Prior knowledge:
Blueprint: H1 12-31, H2 37-72
Amino acid sequence: MGRANNSSVDTTKGDRLAKKINEKRNIVKAGFAPDDAAKKEQIVNARKAANVQAEKEKRKKNAKLAKAAKKKNKKK
């Protein structure tokens, strides 16, 4: 099997990485390909749940940082 790139730079690792990323991307696309309305609704709900979860984690992190800052700036 020959390589498409004939330059003197060895890009084997980059080719492997690109192939692996494309495989993952294709899996995600296949999971989000709606065939009917019910499946489409499930996808929307799954995305909403993921966004809500990310927002919740972000708020927790910000609250933790605010608490640490408050503790640090507390007068003795």
